[in-house]
Design brief:
Blueprint lengths: L17 H9 L3 E4 L7 H10 L3 E4 L1 H5 L2
Parallel strand pairs: 1-2
């Protein structure tokens, strides 16, 4: 088991690289930081469709969880 950090930037879906998409698809769980930055809704919805298990990591999860 390993951990992979994938940077997707703050822009729209089209800015996410193919390598990032493949890493997200291969992951058992994806934590999306929703506390320190905001993403367009279309990007979040896209990530929901390609990931097996998407967890929106809010302030509580990142600081206390």
């Amino acid at each position: 088991m390993g951990i992979t950090f994938v940077g997707i930037g703050l822009g729209p879906r089209r800015h996410i690289t193919e390598a990032a998409i493949e890493s997200i698809k291969a992951a058992d769980m994806v934590f999306l930081d929703t506390y320190t930055g905001t993403l367009p809704n279309e990007t979040v919805e896209f990530l929901r469709t390609i990931s097996r298990h998407l967890i929106l990591a809010d302030r509580y999860l990142l600081e206390d969880g």
